[in-house]
Amino acid sequence: MRNRSIVVALLIGLSGCQDSSNDHSPQVAPPQPPEPETRYSAEIRRTEYGIPHIKAENWGSLGYGQGYAFAQDSYCIAMREVVFATGRSAELMGEAKGDVSGDLLWRYLLGTREDYQREVLDDTESKSYQLFAGYAAGMNRYLREVGKDNLPQGDEGCEDGSWAFEVEAVDLAMVYSRFSLSLSSGNPLLNTGISNAQPSDGAIDSPALTPSALEHAGQSLQHMSNTMAGGGKGSNAIALGRDRTQSGAGMLLGNTHQSWRGFERWHQVHLTIPGVYDVAGASPQGSPGVGLGFNRDLAWTFTTSFTNRFTLYELALNPDNPLEYRYDGGWREIESDEVSIQVLNAQGNLESRTHTFYRSHYGPILTLGHIDPLLAGWPMFNGTVISLRDANLPLNVRLADQVISMGQASDIEEFTRALVPIGNPLWHTLAADRGGAVFYGEVAAIPHVTQAQLDSCIGGIVGPFLRDSTNGAFLSLNGSDPACAWGSDPDSPSGTNLYGYEARPKLLSTDYVANSNNSYWLSNPATPLTGFPTVFGWQGYENQQQFMRTRLGHIMIEERRTATDGLSDSPGFTLDTLKGLMYSSRVLGAEIALDDVLAICDAVGEPSDGAQSRALLSCAVLADWDRRVDLESRGAQVFTEFWKIIRDELAGQFTSVVDSDEFWKIDFDPSNPINTPSGIATELPQNHERVINALNEAVLALDAANVSLDAPWGQLQSLQRNAEQVPLHGGRDEMGSYSVITANLEEGGYVNPRHGNSFINAVTWDESDCPIADVVSVYSQSSKPESDYYSDQSRLYSNKEWIRFPFCDEDIQAQQTGEMLVIEE
Q1: Nearest alpha-carbon partner for 526 in 666, 668, 673, 667
Q2: What per-residue confidence (pLDDT) applies to 14?
């Protein structure tokens, strides 16, 4: 190309030196330089409520359109995630606003951008890489057009824009990987332990191993494992087969309970490469492709799965050298890695900060001393230290490739083939197709640890203590014995020690499958899945009590079979009755316990003190409560606070179920897990005292927050959008609300929930080519306060309304707002 330019220049120069007066030949215009090659080209059409429909001819251009449309709505959310995932928050935001410790940790886990590109994102010809690269280019176009000085403000804005920069595919992929580690190495409880792990340089003053120290440590671990389980975060999903629907077509209800801020927040989108890919739904902020959604013939969704994403290994240290551990009869070295980042200090200067991390051949060394002093030290009280092996390490982008394949599937059979590479890091998977087949699978990253290994490799003091105190969330194996290493299956993903696809709990059916964050066991109670190692689900494992939300989902599905739910006189599901189930606002805790609460109040008679008087006052309100969390429900606040107190006393800290053997009238029965436990054992005096005390404390808490006991729920629970308070139906997970909204009691009520119902979709099919999908995003499409799409869907949700998602071209045209935008570069 350079030689050709020189020749052209010489020719032009020579012609200029000729005597034009003697040259009667026609003048030839110099050749024009070729038009610059267009890398990306995409069409963007917006329909009502801000949903972008992107059409392009290739994967890079599809990502380009999606990245630009997303940036118009919530650019700063993704940009902030990039800053933290790449370990640059303290460099770009300054030490006060950034996170020095977090930057060092993520630089250690994910590596530098150059490391990640070389070791993880090396296939630049793959579809997923092209999506990432195009998406980055679309975000960068938005940044150039708007300029750093004009970026959005607000709670999730870009502040002064100083930390915004043009991103590349590697930056977005690192955000993807950071999220995939959120229930393992990237969880704050564990990564704090990784950062804090430092070998002793002298004598250790270990805490005494006393019964009280063990009890305190056990309580600390229980609280920690509840935090690991998401503290109420999760999802509901129902996939209905042709045996359960009136039309014979499949149906899917997806109701995710992700965070309402940051990467986990969903962004609605429709992506099309004609003849190749045509998928609608939603994706996490700054994430290319469609994470969950539907196409012309199939729909799928996820629920968070609380399985063992990691195991710990207890290492017996050399008494003479804390940097050596016993393995297979010899000593192995603990290796160190020094990590450096740049930090913008208070004087406005960049300075280097370093930290040394340590690792065994299993993975990072960590301490649990921040959870409880008994577990502190390197070595701990028993001369050992703990190492962590993470099922989502080494890093990979299998999920990005798998999402594309899932979206291209046309039926359940093709969909399940897309799951075989085990790209899913965290979730249960549920799907339904046009023909009425449904699927449930626990096909996320799970370490290949057999039950025999769990039975033989957890020994000593620490291993059993961690397992029992966390309900199995923390499994610490013998790190000295090679027999305790993870294994593999013939179909395990290459280079991993994960369980392969064929070994997974999964169910294909024409009946139904459902999940609400318990284990695989009761994906359909009529066909329980059994016989799997406990690593496949420590929350609600086989023959364990299930969440009330899990139970209520199955109860409502069964009531629809017999048409006893009040939604319709005709048995079987229609799309309207499925949506009615979602918005029914039922509270199972009230349905199984409130009658006995009222009976205990009736037994009090004349109150003898202020506590009893307040309890009776609350019961008067609860007696008139409709036992739902609708906007007009009066008394939901009393039961919310009452059940929180009961649960905190009796449930333990690693589960949201009340599992006391003295509280329930009918105890949990593994042979009847959906309908038990139930009722309160009112014959026991301690339960009378417990209930009255909890009611009294609930009233005191509400009074302290200036919340009326009988105010309508819609006046108390709301989402603030500019000057507007949008009332929200739904309630807390722990009391058995299927429609989950998680907000803490504060002055005046429950304002600005942290997480809960987010992107909700109900999908089915008829004889046409177009899927029928009704959707709503509870927090709306855009995070920008000035956007038209900042609160419109929130109001829809408040009114129990839906958007009919336009999928086919004629429907998109009918709902289109504004002109189609064509972007190129």
Answers
A1: 673
A2: 31
